């Protein structure tokens, strides 16, 4: 009730935020988000090394052979890291969800974006390189 004796709406009540700094849950979500992006970056690098080599003018003129197939030894490692990136992203999202009590709290778009990218990557990887994973 307010000083006039009538009930106050919840939207009219101003609250004081007692959070002084980011707690361990927020910090964990941030760190896991960064780790997930690093896993995805490493996967991209591994796929670049595993991809077939490109033939250039130099390799044609000197008659240098190039690898025209995917390196099957690196592909399972790339898949495992991609799955680890997705799992890390899910855990970070769950940590982020625990901090959604106040109207000033927001979902981290970085976690959502990397989650979508890694999920699509896992599906594309299984479709394209499923025979290398067996």
What does this structure look like?
This protein has helices at 24-50, 57-61, 75-97, 109-129. It has 134 residues and is mostly helical. The N and C termini lie far apart (67 Å). The mean pLDDT is 85.
Explain the layout of strands and helices.
Layout: H1 24-50, H2 57-61, H3 75-97, H4 109-129
Question: How large, in whole angstroms, is the Cα Rg?
Answer: 24 Å
Mean pLDDT comes to 85
The unreliable regions are none
The helix content, as a percent range, equals 55-70%
Quaternary structure annotation? single chain
Question: What structural class is derived from the secondary structure elements?
Answer: mainly alpha
Instruction: State the separation between the terminal residues, measured CA to CA.
Output: 67 Å
Count of individual domains: 1
Shape: elongated
For the biggest sheet, the summary is: none
What's the short version?
This protein is mostly helical.
List keywords for this structure.
mainly alpha, about 0% strand, about 130 residues, 4 helices
């Amino acid at each position: 009730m307010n000083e006039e004796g009538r009930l106050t709406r919840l939207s009219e009540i101003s609250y004081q935020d007692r959070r002084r700094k980011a707690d361990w849950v927020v910090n964990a979500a941030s760190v896991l988000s960064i780790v997930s992006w690093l896993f995805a970056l490493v996967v991209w690098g591994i796929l670049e090394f595993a991809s077939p080599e490109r033939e250039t003018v130099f390799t044609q003129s000197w008659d240098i052979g190039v690898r025209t197939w995917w390196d099957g030894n690196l592909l399972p490692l790339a898949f495992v890291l991609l799955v680890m990136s997705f799992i890390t992203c899910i855990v970070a999202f769950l940590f982020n969800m625990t901090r959604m009590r106040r109207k000033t709290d927001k979902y981290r778009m970085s976690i959502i974006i990397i989650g979508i990218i890694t999920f699509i990557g896992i599906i594309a990887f299984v479709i394209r390189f499923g025979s290398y994973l067996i």
